[in-house]
Amino acid sequence: MTTPTAPDRMRALQKAQQVRRGRAQLKRQIAGGEVTVAEVLLSPPTEAATWGLGEILTSQRRWGTARCRRFLRRAGIDERKPIGRLTERQRRVLVEQLTSERTFN
User: Which listed CATH number (1.10.8.50, 1.10.357.140, 3.90.1010.10, 3.10.270.10) goes with 9-104?
Assistant: First the structure.
């Protein structure tokens, strides 16, 4: 097994930092109402591809862990599932449920 060289390691660290910054900015935008979770699910940015569903759902206002788990249980999807690994059908189901939740709240 080979160890990564210093330049490779630095590139990997920079990429990880860029992903963390992108996610933090996206979380702020969701919490502020600038972007909806439905928009992110329909066309996820690259930094959100490995982000777990539970984490993005709880970044919305008034969404805690219990509400997130109930919501995903109805869809039959694990809260740790990365956004980038969702099928188109799963995305549509989640967006429909999010839209109907917004109507009733």
Answer: 1.10.8.50
